[in-house]
Amino acid sequence: MAANGSARIAAPTNVSLGLTPPVAESLEFKTVSVFLVLLVCTAGIVGNVMVVLVVLTTRHMRTPTNCYLVSLAVADLTVLVAAGLPNVAESLSGTWVFGHSGCLGITYLQYLGINVSSCSITAFTVERYIAICHPMRAKTVCTVSRAKRIIAGVWVFTCIYCMLWFFLVDIKVVESGHVQCGYKVKRELYLPIYLIDFAIFYVVPLLLAIVLYGLIARILYLRKSTLSYTAGPLLAHPSSSSSLGAQNQCPVPHALPPLPPLQVTKMLAVVVVLFALLWMPYRTLVLLNSFMATPYLDDWFVLFCRTCIYANSAINPVIYNAMSQKFRSAFRGLYHCKGAEASHPAAAFSTV
């Protein structure tokens, strides 16, 4: 019994690995696991591929914000392919079937996708803050070329950072005879890594998002109040002389630059909120298990945590389609094999 407990303590707590018998081998569990994962991952892969295609093939969709959404879509694809699909194979076979190289490569890709997703969300949050709170500066800062450089830097940094996992995992045979892709170092060594990951790629992005979206909401409220106050005299006196009208109208455009489409900001805020909620069960589980003497590894709850992760990677295209008219039109154009630009040629200067 002690040996089995030790094995569960050493069991990996990454996204796709680590289920243990007997529950994981039951027909009921395998059926539910395979169905859920395949359903979510298939929908997510199709949706994220469509996001990448519509932005790359439609000129008016190539905006700074959409560049970050493409980076997020590619990261989500990485998570779905490297975590979701191996989870299906594990559920069906009950053991690790990808060997030593697969253990290293798949674990690396899992964390690469997870961390790039977080960084991409942080990047477009900062971009939205600059676009709304500093609109004059945004003309030179929020550009497609700068967005591409930031995205390249994010991927390079994360690729290097995640190389640490090549030295932390390996395949092993547990007492039950099953092969697992697990950790080859002591628990005390990978504990700081999990805590650093939790802080850098979850806590910090969410705190930053709370602060920046709070500032965005404040600016929008103040501008709405100012516009209402300024527009009042004009609406109240439609028959005023032309000189008086000109006098009232002149300060407005100079003092208040036009706002970017607010629907974009709402859409991105929803993406951030869902990121926080859907990652919370897994992040909480890993954090608690890092300090508990006997980790909580109930297979059904672990499956729930993983399904939330896959759902987070799959739901973003649904949000874009539901909240962005431009994405809906582009998706329809892609579906019907037509050029999306032909549908909205005058929308080239919109954000999303």
Description:
There is one protein chain. This protein is mainly alpha-helical and 352 residues long. The chain has one domain (2-232, 252-347): Rhodopsin 7-helix transmembrane proteins (Rhopdopsin 7-helix transmembrane proteins). Helix content is 74%, strand content 3%. The chain has 13 helices and 2 strands. It has helices at 2-10, 27-57, 64-93, 99-133, 135-141, 144-161, 187-236, 242-249, 251-255, 262-289, 299-323, 325-335, 340-343, and strands at 169-173, 179-183. A two-stranded antiparallel ribbon has the order 1-2. Helix 2 crosses helix 12 and helix 11 (299-323) packs across helix 12 (325-335). The longest helix has 50 residues, at 187-236.
Question: TL;DR of this structure?
Answer:
By secondary structure, this protein is mainly α. The chain has helices at 2-10, 27-57, 64-93, 99-133, 135-141, 144-161, 187-236, 242-249, 251-255, 262-289, 299-323, 325-335, 340-343, and strands at residues 169-173, 179-183. It is 74% helix and 3% strand.
Question: What's the SSE blueprint?
Answer:
Layout: H1 2-10, H2 27-57, H3 64-93, H4 99-133, H5 135-141, H6 144-161, E1 169-173, E2 179-183, H7 187-236, H8 242-249, H9 251-255, H10 262-289, H11 299-323, H12 325-335, H13 340-343
Antiparallel strand pairs: 1-2
Keywords: G-protein coupled receptor, Membrane, Receptor, Transducer, Transmembrane, Transmembrane helix
Organism: Gadus morhua
Protein name: Thyrotropin-releasing hormone receptor
